[in-house]
Amino acid sequence: MAFDRKHLLGMDGVTREEILTILDTARSFREILERPIKRVPTLQGKTVVNLFFEPSTRTRISFELAEKRLSADIINFTASASSVKKGETLIDTVRNIEAMKIDMVVVRHSSPGAPHLLTRVVDANVINAGDGGHEHPTQALLDMMTIREKLGTLEGITVALVGDISHSRVAMSNIYGLRTMGARVLVCGPSTLIPKEIERLGVEVYYNVDEVIPQADVLNILRLQLERQRKGLFPSLREYHNYFGITRERLEKATRKLLIMHPGPMNRGVEISSDVADSDHSVILEQVTYGVAIRMAVLYLLAGGKSEIN
Amino acid sequence: MKLTKTVIISRKAYQAVPEQLLLKNGRIIDPQRQVDEQADILIENGVITRVGIIDDSTFPGQVIDLTGKIVSPGWMDMHTHLREPGREDEETIESGMLAAANGGFTSVCCMPNTQPPIDTQEIIQYIKDRSRNALVNVHPIAAITKGREGKELSEILELVEQGAVAISDDGSPVMSAEIMRRALEYSRMVDIPVIGHEEDITMTEGGDINEGYTSTCLGLGGMPTVAEDIMVARDIMLAEYTGARFHVAHVSSGKSVELIRQAKAKGIKVTAEVTPHHFSLTEEAVRSFDTNTKMNPPLRTEEDRQALLEGLKDGTIDVIATDHAPHSWEEKEAEYKRAPFGIIGLETALGVSLTYLYHTGILSLPQIIEKFAVHPYRILNLPQPAIEQNVPANLTIFDPEAEWVVQEEKFLSKSTNSPFIGHRLKGKPFLVIHNGQLFFSTL
Lengths: 310, 443
Prior knowledge:
The structure holds two protein chains of two kinds. By secondary structure, chain A is α/β, with parallel strands linked by helices. Chain A contains twelve helices and nine strands. Chain A has helices at residues 16-33, 58-69, 90-99, 114-121, 137-151, 169-180, 209-212, 227-230, 237-244, 248-251, 274-277, 284-302, and strands at residues 47-52, 73-78, 104-109, 125-131, 158-162, 184-188, 204-206, 218-221, 259-261. In chain A, strands 7-6-5-8-9 form a five-stranded parallel β-sheet. Chain A has a four-stranded parallel β-sheet with strand order 2-1-3-4, with helices on both faces. The longest helix of chain B has 18 residues, at 225-242. Chain B is globular and about 70 Å long. In chain B, strands 1, 2, 3, 4, 5, 6, 17, 18, 19 and 20 form a ten-stranded mixed β-sheet that branches. Chain B folds into two domains: 16-71 and 389-440, Urease, subunit C, domain 1 (Roll), CATH 2.30.40; 74-379, TIM Barrel. Chain B starts with 14 loop residues before the first strand and ends with a strand. In chain B, strand 19 and strand 20 (437-440) form a beta hairpin. By secondary structure, chain B is α/β, with parallel strands linked by helices. Classes of the chains: A alpha/beta, B alpha/beta. The interface between A and B is medium-sized, with 26 and 18 residues.
């Protein structure tokens, strides 16, 4: 099996074989999730800590469910209820938890590189569940799984990432993963939300969403944070919606059946209109389902991937 | 696991210069007087009494053999943060002077961003008291504005009379063009340079590293070069308008080098310094998420680095200065975004400069010595150390060929926040002699 990693910190540097291994493994877990009894003993006796230093509902629940399905023991740690507020450092927090004998850490943090820092101070496996604007590898994997399950392949598929590329860990991880898998990647958004020199990652940059739609097989629509407006990066939600919002009228320019994806949570009426989000193009809820399977696969493979999945 | 570092070597490690000391077989390079020769130096009671070929067969005093070593006028670091008063856990005047001596420096200028800042005569007096009778001279740089807040001028005339050699709000820019203009105008009365930390902070807010490919890949906040360039351009124009002397601290952007080159060609009184880390490292180093790659200005691109080298070569950049910025291990060993900006540099500057400038053929040894031991004194209007008869010995002696690996245990600074730990360098400090004392480097 082409997987010999201790940590999953990002999609940067993850090989095609590794990605295929994860996606194939996730497919097996996906089948288990369809059974009446959805739990397997794969991680029995292992303890996983979910360390969330940033608010998250979807990703945290998805990881938690994946861990439960694999029979792991789980500890949930959220910053709001924690010693972080009492001034304890990230390193001390994690060392303390590790001293309680845990095996894996799932970490979400606002600072890029926080999971990398943890790998230097603890022995446990570390999974990055989002580090600032850097990476969110399991999101990219579940996005790739969704595309692969729906379209049969990733190679040669054109995926457009639309919205705030500058601050998006989802965009970065998708770019790394999709490029490795041979997909064509377009990024589209206001020029102030496209980061410097992103072309060097092998993507094409567009500022007009109507030019992107006819070329794309997949639109992955990113969440727009209102905070960016206050920083002067775009003038108003109204203008954003008029020029970059994905609406039914815009989708009429599509030349083939588009898959509509969104990592959530959505701002309906801003980056995506409700009739698109709820249309039969939309695979947004499938993404969520695949998310659990992907996270099961990653946990399983990092734990050694030795035991039988069934 | 890491223990808080205690500097065990105290002032006892400095030795008094023996009544009669003979430095044998060194290569003396004194660019100021265009000297580059193999010769011996006799020092009696701390004063150079003879330079030439001196027979040591009947010499009664101590002889130090300097075969293969370079003897230079004493080096100055014109950009050091000593952290005292305020953050004595990170560095004290005493430990900073030790680190300087260990790194081959006999003088340092300390920046005013202490707590409280160097904006009163009392703080200047305090620094002078704390560094009295030491091997290393400490020259305070006073704040341009009260509290370094960029609002009202400090009492510049009094601060200079008390001993300040320059003014700077280093760590922060003077954002108001009007205040900067007045500071330059006012400084003309005492003919001191105004040292600018060039950063438009409205463009760097939330930034961690250079804005570009690496910040895109790592999702860290960008600090664009143009935020530096805009301020360099502004202050060059203000220097031209006021006729005052303006010195650019830690140039990091290639475009800024170009602006300074053009200003010098026009005869505007501008000088500039670069740090060893900016001419040796690039933003690529940040990929490790090692917080010792986080400093302000940030590490830039290879293109910028090449422009800095070109500026050093053609004389656009006058000085190499360390921006030695000690930070506690507790603060640095943190998430990248949370870690403070700054790295130490006093003990690696010589090795990094020789490795990246001399052994690569970019600068000759006399050119490097000019940037450490000639131009800083000239810019600050301080007496130039010279290797000649009847002058008190102020010498930096180093081995240009010695190879060594930077080890944090060997630093005498109280802090160890260096990106060069583990790096192999070629060129090593050996000995400094100044103020009747000598110190052998322990690196």
